[in-house]
């Protein structure tokens, strides 16, 4: 019998917690660097610091050290730090820069605010050659530079571009080797009776026995919950999965987030018989199936919660109550999910389908009102009314697209004009080079007037890197007629437009009366601006 000492997660015996802890010395150095940074000229290059870490151990570079080293690098380069994109506990192999929470926001929405991206080492930034190539293309398009403290990277030179590609290839090879080792480990542990790695199925938890080995033991609270559910399902009048979930949550045996689908998935898991399982996804439906060993027999990894007879009888009882629901559509049954909301509970309206006596019925219902708020029949009629209201209110709005404009050329022209004006003003002072004859003085004064007019004609905004909204020649009515309902739904969800559905009973009529109210944000015109996804092809 295994001796239970302490429970913990199965993936790692030494759980890590990614925390950026600043010591007093670190904070003092940070203030010193900021004071030195404040002395830089106003036109100093603007640096964004990218700090990333997947696992914090004694061998890794802490986020604090990365930031301080990068601030020193920025100061040495004469750059002013305008922000720190800190993405901790994020894998560079799985999450590219533009998908990270903080760095992704800078890349997608705040590009005009910085001129270069500084990172500690290339593998702290990317680990895939394709991601690196995408970032190089993005930087060249927007006039940005990539700078690494510990690698020879500088996109302003041809040699720097070649070097960054070579280093990125090495980083991708290293990541691929790590992925191969992990996949090999998982394939190995699936065939073992010992519990080596992985998250236990519901009903079990990990513990150490006398030999210090990790084993699976039965979670007593889960054991009670599962056996109560089986007894409830085997009654002459069986309880529904929804009822089971409510009772378990109220009893404190399960968390408040327990759903009916999760409840059923737990009860149908073969792991409850103590066998090793793996998850299988089919059309969006998640199911666990047993893993067979080399002898074509199930692999037992723990004591069973249910015997095979108990498990089979439970499955038959669940099958008797199961509804033969229509297969899910790949795009979802509700066409305006997230736009249609309930007036009473403010939850999303979703399409429910029932089949009675061979006929299929569809209706919209909410998630929190009792009985779904009695539903709203004829979803297609509601969709049509919503589309009509949206076209009437927003259909004539022009389609504006966001474009990036660099101010480098305008800044150069501004600097040239200012230097030229200063040159002629100095020459026109008493004793200056243009005051020796009347002819040279008049010519210089005319040239100076022309230069001043050119300077005044330059829009100060044009000297800044900025986003501008440009009309693409279409209205949203034309745009939506080309894209269909899917385009309307996507734009309404993006903009934050809501349609509130209110249902009221009608005496003597089963179907309720439907009232619809379109809720449009005040800044809808700004929200409607289309933003090009620079990284769409990279997914």
From TrEMBL:
Residues 201-324 form the Recombinase domain. InterPro entries: DNA_bind_recomb_sf (IPR038109), DNA_bind_recombinase_dom (IPR011109), Resolv_N (IPR006119), Resolvase-like_N_sf (IPR036162), SSR_resolvase (IPR050639), Zn_ribbon_recom_dom (IPR025827). GO terms for molecular function: DNA binding; DNA strand exchange activity. Keywords: DNA recombination, DNA-binding. It comes from the Bacteria. Coiled coil: none annotated. PANTHER family: DNA-INVERTASE FROM LAMBDOID PROPHAGE, SERINE RECOMBINASE PINE-RELATED. This is Recombinase family protein.
């Amino acid at each position: 019998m295994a001796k239970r000492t302490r429970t913990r997660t199965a993936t790692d015996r030494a759980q890590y917690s990614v925390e950026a802890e600043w010591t007093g010395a670190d904070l003092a150095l940070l203030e010193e660097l900021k004071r030195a940074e404040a002395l830089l000229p106003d036109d100093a290059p603007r640096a964004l610091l990218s700090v990333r870490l997947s696992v914090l151990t004694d061998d890794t570079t802490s986020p604090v050290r990365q930031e301080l080293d990068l601030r020193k690098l920025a100061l040495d380069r004469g750059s002013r730090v305008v922000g720190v994109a800190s993405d901790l506990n994020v894998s560079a192999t799985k999450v590219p820069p533009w998908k990270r929470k903080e760095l992704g926001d800078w890349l997608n929405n705040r590009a005009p605010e910085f001129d270069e991206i500084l990172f500690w080492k290339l593998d702290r930034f990317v680990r895939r050659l394709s991601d690196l190539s995408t970032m190089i293309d993005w930087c060249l398009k927007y006039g940005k530079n990539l700078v690494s403290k510990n690698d020879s990277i500088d996109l302003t030179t041809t040699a720097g571009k070649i070097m960054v590609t070579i280093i990125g290839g090495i980083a991708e090879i290293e990541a691929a080797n790590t992925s191969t080792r992990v996949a090999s480990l998982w394939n190995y542990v699936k065939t073992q009776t010992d519990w080596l790695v992985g998250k236990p199925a519901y009903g079990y938890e990990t513990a150490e026995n006398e030999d210090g080995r990790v084993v699976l033991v039965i979670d007593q609270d889960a054991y009670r919950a599962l056996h109560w559910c089986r007894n409830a399902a085997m009654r002459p009048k069986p309880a529904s999965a929804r009822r089971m979930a409510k009772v378990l949550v109220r009893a404190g045996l399960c968390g408040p987030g327990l759903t009916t689908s999760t409840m059923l998935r737990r009860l149908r898991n073969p792991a409850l018989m103590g066998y090793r399982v793996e998850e299988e996804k089919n059309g969006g439906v998640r199911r666990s199936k047993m893993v067979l060993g080399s002898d074509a027999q199930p692999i037992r990894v723990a004591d069973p919660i249910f015997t095979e007879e108990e498990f089979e009888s439970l499955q038959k009882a669940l099958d008797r109550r199961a509804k033969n629901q229509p297969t899910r559509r790949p795009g979802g049954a509700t066409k305006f999910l997230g736009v249609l909301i309930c007036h009473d509970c403010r939850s999303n309206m979703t399409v429910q389908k029932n089949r009675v006596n061979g006929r299929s019925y569809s209706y919209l219902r909410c998630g929190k009102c009792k009985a779904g708020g009695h539903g709203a029949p004829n979803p297609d009629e509601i969709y049509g009314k919503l589309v009509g209201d949206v076209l009437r209110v927003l259909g004539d709005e022009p389609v504006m697209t966001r474009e990036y404009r660099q101010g480098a050329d305008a800044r150069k022209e501004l600097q040239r004009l200012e230097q030229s004006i200063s040159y002629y003003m100095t020459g026109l002072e008493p004793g200056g080079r243009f005051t020796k004859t009347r002819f040279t003085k008049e010519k210089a004064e005319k040239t100076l007037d022309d230069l001043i007019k050119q300077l005044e004609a330059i829009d100060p905004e044009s000297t800044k890197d900025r986003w501008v909204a440009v009309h693409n020649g279409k209205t949203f009515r034309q745009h939506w007629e080309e894209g269909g309902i899917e385009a309307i739904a996507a734009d309404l969800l993006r903009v934050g437009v809501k349609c509130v559905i209110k249902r009221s009973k009608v005496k003597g009529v089963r179907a309720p009366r439907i009232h619809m109210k379109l809720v449009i944000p005040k800044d809808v015109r700004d929200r409607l601006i289309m933003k090009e996804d620079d990284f769409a092809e990279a997914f």
